[in-house]
Amino acid sequence: MDQIKIGKFIAERRKGVGLTQMQLAEELNITDRAVSKWETGRALPDSSIMLELCEILHITVNDLLCGEVITMDNYSKELETNLIEMIQEKEEADKRLLRLELVMGICCLLPAIAAVIIALTVPMAEWLGSVIVAASLVPLLIATPFALKIEQKAGYYECKKCGHRYVPKYVNVFAAMHLHTTRYMRCPKCQKRSWQKKVIRKE
Q1: Considering only CA atoms, which of 30, 71, 31, 64 is closest in space to residue 50?
Q2: What pLDDT, on the 0 to 100 scale, is given for residue 91?
Q3: Are residues 64 and 99 in the same domain?
Q4: pLDDT digits (tens, 9 = 90+) for 81-138
Q5: DSSP annotation of 155
Q6: Phi, psi torsion values for 182, nearest 5 degrees
Q7: Residue 75 falls inside a structural domain
């Protein structure tokens, strides 16, 4: 999607309905700085307010994502293109999140490993070694819920039995045995348990 084109289109439609950036922002309960970012192509409207924005500007979501009013002649083609682009953007975002999860895991595990090595090899009081190891585990304990949330939301899990791909509940991801991103869970479709691998695409 061309953010610059979309931004110019938003500005044009805003002026067309006789609103200033401040007035549009007030109607959407956001800051005029956010509207300015849209119109200069530095950001896109959040999905949670997109429908309301389109209603105010008297356009469709497809018009907004195309950066122009779409005629019925090429509506289906443009809609299909926008859907494909949104799917691709989600896949890229999911890949970035999974890479972030891996980096978080490495950054939290290395201090813990180093602390254990120090506690076992450097002469010190037993209580001090225990404190060092316990302190090194704090970042890991803090990061784990965030990593699990990424694990749940980014991409899909594929059932080994029936091939169904789905986003599991957080509690299922939390409770499942796992080997990195492969988890032993029950498929909501066939109800069978299997080692389900993480995939990026829905189909």
Answers
A1: 64
A2: 84
A3: no
A4: 777 677 778 888 888 888 888 898 899 889 889 999 998 898 988 899 899 999 999 9
A5: S
A6: -100, 125
A7: no
116 and 64 together in one domain: no
Per DSSP, what are the bridge partners of residue 179? 182
Asked if pLDDT for residue 194 goes beyond 80, the answer is yes
Do 138 and 162 form a contact (C-beta atoms < 8 A)? no
Query: Does residue 57 have a pLDDT over 80?
Result: yes
- Is the residue at 17 inside a domain? yes
CA distance 63 to 41: 16
Residue 118, C-beta contacts closer than 8 angstroms, at least 6 positions apart: 129, 132
User: 32 lies in which domain range?
Assistant: 3-70
72 pLDDT band, cuts 50/70/90, is: low
Q: Taking 80 as the threshold, does the pLDDT of residue 17 lie above it?
A: yes
- Residue 20 CA to residue 26 CA, distance in Å, equals 10
The DSSP H or E segment spanning 89 is helix 75-121
Instruction: Give the tokens for residue 4.
Output: 């610059």
**Extended strands (E) in the chain:** 156-158, 165-166, 177-179, 182-186, 193-199
Q: What are phi and psi of 46, to 5 degrees?
A: -65, 145
Which stretches within 122-176 are classed as H helix? Answer: 126-153, 170-175
> Cα dihedral sign for 17, 74, 39, 53?
positive
83: in domain: no
Percent of the chain with pLDDT over 70: 95
